Automatic annotation (TrEMBL):
The chain crosses the membrane at residues 15-36, 70-89, 109-128, 140-160, 199-219, 231-249, 264-282, 294-314, 377-403. It is found in: Endoplasmic reticulum membrane. Belongs to the ERG4/ERG24 family. This is 7-dehydrocholesterol reductase. The keyword Acetylation does not apply.
Amino acid sequence: MAAAPETKTVHSPALTYFSMLSLLSLCPPFVILLWYTMVHADGSVVQTRNYLKQHGLQGFIDIWPRPTAIAWKIIFVYGAFEAALQLLLPGKRVEGPVSPTGNRPVYKANGMAAYFVTLVTYISLWWFEIFNPTVVYDHLGEIYSALIFGSLIFCVFLYIKGHVAPSSTDSGSSGNLIIDFYWGMELYPRIGKNFDIKVFTNCRFGMMSWAVLAVTYCIKQYELNGKVSDSMLVNTTLMLVYVTKFFWWEAGYWNTMDIAHDRAGFYICWGCLVWVPSVYTSPGMYLVNHPVNLGMQLALYILVAGILCIYINYDCDRQRQEFRRTNGKCKIWGKAPSKIEATYTTTSGETKTSLLLTSGWWGLARHFHYVPEILAAFFWTVPALFNHFLPYFYVVFLTILLFDRAKRDDDRCRSKYGKYWKLYCNKAPYKIIPGIY
Ligand code: NDP
């Protein structure tokens, strides 16, 4: 078996093991506590802490919902529906970037169609009274519980598959069970020739569930109160704009770190199957029982600011991809782009060249696109106002994730491009926030 394409020990080995083991053991209970606090403890961390103080470990076991048959049924029907759309809907043939061992994965770009079919089907099921999405909200704890255990088993399957039946040469073991399980072994695992597992877990299950749950929370509030508050409308609209942008640009996502660099293991796959539907959607989960009335003017200000941030984030990604797609022969902010031709060597010893864009958004800072990403999350959370901290957990988590990601990406690019990356750092000295960091 080939060696791992990249060993992800950006931090010291002790810190790496500590953070891996902490995330493996703390993320599952956190998901349950988050759900419990949002749905049953008024969004108040203090209330949950007092409950746990009073009832101890047994109290925690009591609030952890057991996965029920209805929860499994909802997950299975949703997963099977998304898998069928991924396989069957038509789409353009798209090639991903060249992998470290020189492969080029091929995809069918049918994400936008799948997104459209999913939302229309879900809303129609409600409209024609065939299935009420409030059932999903009412069984949310059981669904998360089932997802937690089901996804852990799925990660074991990925680990075994990586060892015994890898789909391509972009696979390998680090020689350490925990690292292999946590970071994954295969870069592009597939079932058969066409069913890409990471496209399913990250896009069609994870990101799609974000939109489906945002709509669910809205409908639940409507059924509870007979109307939807403006705060919920702003939150849902911004989340849907964000997810729509994601599927509009899904083929571009296949060029990003999640797909092109991070292998299929607990970090990415469990994260997309469990963390995205629970933590990413949590501001909406909170708003169901906290219908704040913002007033038309404030609601509009927040909405416009959020849409602007989502647009800028999209434009940063678009700029980089357009620049790479046209081999630098495009206009960036109305001018010919400034660029660096960076050569590097693949793991198989071939010399290749990549273009690095050093103007436009990519000249402001090396990861400026994370700024509007974080601000957009702030704007779809701020309709909850400031009574509780917990709705802001996603914004705080995202900020930590993206600052860590900027470091990981910088380190990876430095070792890939060497002196050319140094040149880029001289031209764009800031990592994320121009003039500050
Ligand atoms: P990027 O899209 O920023 O991709 C980084 C890669 O781009 C680098 O590894 C390098 O790859 C290439 N690159 C770096 N600098 C340049 C340059 N100047 N010119 C051309 N290519 C360059 O990575 P992300 O995956 O972090 O972000 C993608 C999107 O996903 C963003 O919008 C981000 O905000 C969003 N995101 C959202 C998250 C969430 O949880 N909500 C989490 C993470 C990302 P190469 O080897 O090809 O040179």
